[in-house]
Amino acid sequence: MFKKILIANRGEIACRVIKTARRMGIATVAIYSDADRNALHVRMADEAIHIGPSPANQSYIVIDKVMQAVRDSGAEAVHPGYGFLSENRRFAEALEAEGVAFIGPPAGAIEAMGDKITSKKLAKEAGVSTVPGHMGLIADADEAAKIASEIGYPVMIKASAGGGGKGMRIAWNDEEAREGFQASKNEAASSFGDDRIFIEKFVTQPRHIEIQVLADSHGNTLWLNERECSIQRRNQKVIEEAPSPFLDAATRKAMGEQSCALARAVNYASAGTVEFIVDGDRNFYFLEMNTRLQVEHPVTELITGIDLVEQMIRVAAGEKLSLTQEDIGINGWAIESRLYAEDPYRNFLPSIGRLSRYRPPQEFATPEAVVRNDTGVYEGGEISMYYDPMIAKLCTWAPDRAAAIDGMRVALDTFEVEGIGHNLPFLSAVMDHPRFVSGDISTAFIDEEYPDGFQGATLAPELLSRVAAAASAMYFVTEVRRARISGRMDNHERHVGADWVVALDGQEMPVTVHADKAGSNVTFADGRTIRVESDWRPGQSLARLQVDGTPLVMKVGKQPNGFRLRLRGADLKVRVLSPRRAELSRLMPEKLPPDTSRMLICPMPGLVVSLAVAEGDEVQEGQALCTVEAMKMENTLRAERRGVVKKINATAGQSLAVDEVIMEFE
Predict the structure, then answer these.
(1) Is 629 part of the annotated catalytic residue set?
(2) What percent of the chain has pLDDT over 90?
(3) CATH 3.30.700.30 intervals, the chain
(4) DSSP one-letter code for 327
(5) How many helices (H) and strands (E) does the chain have?
(6) Is the pLDDT of residue 492 over 70?
(7) If we measure between CA atoms, which residue out of 286, 283, 170 comes closest to residue 273?
(8) CATH for the stretch 599-665
(9) In this structure, which topology does domain 461-585 adopt according to CATH?
(10) Which residues make beta-bridge pairs with 391?
C-alpha cells in the first residue's frame, strides 16, 4: 500500500480524499493556488505545496506544475478528485512515465471515454443503448443548425470534453442552435482547452440516472446500483438520490450489466460512472462515461457501505476487489443536496465573498439515520470567483425515502450560512415539493416548476400557524428579558402583556401567550391553543423548538418588533406587536423600492465578455445586450422590453460587482 499520496485538486473533494487516506494510514499532500493559501484542504493535509496563481489554467490544470509538486513531495500516487486533471489522458501518462500511480483508470480508458464522440461510438459497439445524434466534428454555427434540423428539434449541444454542465445548451430552433453552438464552443475552450462540439437528440421528460461501476486490473467489474440525478439547474446536478424512485429491478440490472460491458470494453480499472437518460417507459440511452469519482458518490456509499475512495486507492495499488456482484445490495435510501454559492432569488447567479457564518448540521451515523456533510470551506473563509461555486454536499440516509427526505428537511433548516448568496432556501423548497416527494421528476423539473425563477417557498396554513405560535412565544421571551434588564420586573411580578398580534406573510393573527417554566401556550382567536417548548434565548441564530410535540427548526435574525425567520425555503419577516401598535401600523404608508426599470444591472459579480449594442441603438424585447462570465459560465443578459440605449457604463474586459449599472435606457 502507498505511504504517501498527493491530491491534485482542491475544496471538498480534496478534503474527502484526505479523510479516507488518513483512515488508511496514508500521508497526504495538498496543492494550492494563491486564492487557496488558507483553504481547508491545505490545513487538513500533512503537507501542502504552492503551485501558482489563482486562475485554474495557471495552477491546478497545469500538468508541469502538478508534476513538479509530485516530485518535490515524493508522493507514490496521485488522486485527481473530479474536474481539473481528473480525466486528462496526458496527466495520467505523465504520472506513469514518472513511475507514480494514478488513482484512476488507465490512460487508454480516459482517452476513449473522456471524449464524448468516441465514447458513444464505443458504447454502441459494446451493445449499449445510445441516443440518436451527430458524433462527427462540426465546422461552424451554420453546419450546427443544419445538423440539428436533420436530427429534429429539440437537440442538445454539448462539448466533447465537457462536464459539470459547462459547454452545454438546448436548442429548439435554428437560431438557438447557432447561438448555442458558439456559446458552447467558447465555454468549452475556456473550461477544458478543447472546443469540439457534438449534437444529439434531446429526449423530452427525461430522467438522468447513472450507474456506479467499480473495476480492478484483474478482470473484475461490478455495478453498485444507480443514482437519480434528475433535479438539475442549467444542466448541473443539484439534488441526487440513491436508489432511483423510478427504476425497477429488471431495468436496474440491464443498465448495470451494460455499464459493466462498456467498462470491460475499454479495460477500465477504478471507480467510474456510466450516465444514462431514461424516458417515461424506462427506455434508457447512454449519455457518457465519467472516468473519475463523481460529485454525488456519497449517496452510493451510504446505501452500499462501500468507501469508493478507498477502493480506488486499493485498485491503483494493484489489489483485487474483495467484493463480488452478490455482495452489492441496497440498504435504505440516501439523498444529497449540493449547497452552492449562488443566489436563487437572482436566477441562481453566482455569489462570492466571505462566509461570515458557516455552521453545518452536526454529522452523525446511527442505525436509524445518517447526516453527512462533505465540505471544503470554513467560517471566515472566502468563496472565490475562480472556481466552482459548490460549498458543500449535505447527505442524509434513512431506512426509506420518506424518512431520508424528512432528515434532509431538518438538516437544511439547521444549516447556517451567511455572508453570501446561497441556494439553501431552494433546496428546502424542493424537499417539500409534491412532485419531488412523489418521485415524479425529470431533468425539466426546475424549469417547469419555477419558470419565473425561485421567489421563495409558500408555507402551508398549518405550518404558518405553528411559526406564528413559535414567534410569539420567542418574542415573549425577549420581552421578559428586556423587562428584567430594565428593572420593570420586580419581585417576580410580570409586566409583560399576554395579548399580541403576529404579522407575517400578509396576515395578522391575534394571539394570547401564557408562559410557564417549560414553555408557552399560545391561543389563537379561534380558540385553538398551540404548545411551544424550547430552550432558545435572545441572540441565538438557530431556534430548535417543539411545537405541539413536533420538531420545528428555524434560522432567526433580529428585526424591529420581531424576527426574520427562515425555514423550509421560506424567508419571513415576522412582527409581533401589541394590539395598539398593530392598529397604528396599519396606517403606515408602504415604502416602495427604487425604480430600476430603465437600467441593465449586473446580477452577479463577473467579467464583461462582450457588449452586443451601442449607445443610441434601438433594442427589442429578448435581444442580447451583453455577455458576463462568472465562475467560467457565460451568461447572456437580454432586454426585458423594447427601448433605446441611452448610456453604456461598462466596457468589455471590465470586472463588475453585483448590482453595478451596465447600461441605461431612454
Answers:
(1) no
(2) 76
(3) 461-585
(4) G
(5) 17, 40
(6) no
(7) 286
(8) 2.40.50.100
(9) Glycoprotein, Type 4 Pilin (3.30.700)
(10) none
Alpha-carbon distance 29 to 14, whole Å?
10
Rounded CA separation 181/201 (Å) = 15
Domain 4-103 coded CATH 3.40.50.20 = yes
Residue type, 110: I
* Cα–Cα distance, 607 to 657 (Å, whole number): 9
Q: Alpha carbon 412 to chain centroid distance?
A: 13
Catalytic annotation, pick one of 241, 288, 296, 479: 288
Helices (H), 266-347: 297-304, 308-316
CATH of domain 332-454: 3.30.470.20
Domain with CATH 3.30.470.20 in the chain: 107-131+207-331, 332-454
Yes or no: say if 315 and 269 are a contact pair by the CB < 8 Å rule.
yes
Rounded distance between C-alpha atoms, residue 185 and residue 190, angstroms = 9
Q: For residue 588, give every residue at least 6 positions away whose Cβ sits within 8 Å of its Cβ, in sequence order, or none.
A: none
**Block residue for cell numbers 465514447:** 119
DSSP string, 611-649: E---TT-EE-TT-EEEEEEETTEEEEEE-SS-EEEEEE-
Rounded to an integer, what distance in angstroms lies between the CA atom of residue 198 and that of residue 140? 11
- For residues 196 and 324, the model is more confident at 324
As given in the structure block, the three cell numbers for residue 47 are 503537507
The answer to whether residues 604 and 350 touch, using CB atoms and an 8 Å cutoff, is yes
Instruction: Decide if pLDDT at 162 tops 80.
Output: no
Residues of CATH 2.40.50.100 domain(s) within the chain?
599-665
Q: What is the pLDDT of residues 53-112, one digit of tens each?
A: 999 999 999 999 999 999 999 999 999 999 999 999 999 999 999 999 999 999 999 999
CB 598 within 8 A of CB 665: yes
**What pLDDT digit, counting tens, does each position of 515-535 carry?**
998 999 999 999 999 999 999
Which CATH architecture does the domain made up of 133-201 adopt? 2-Layer Sandwich (3.30)
For 107-131+207-331, CATH number? Answer: 3.30.470.20
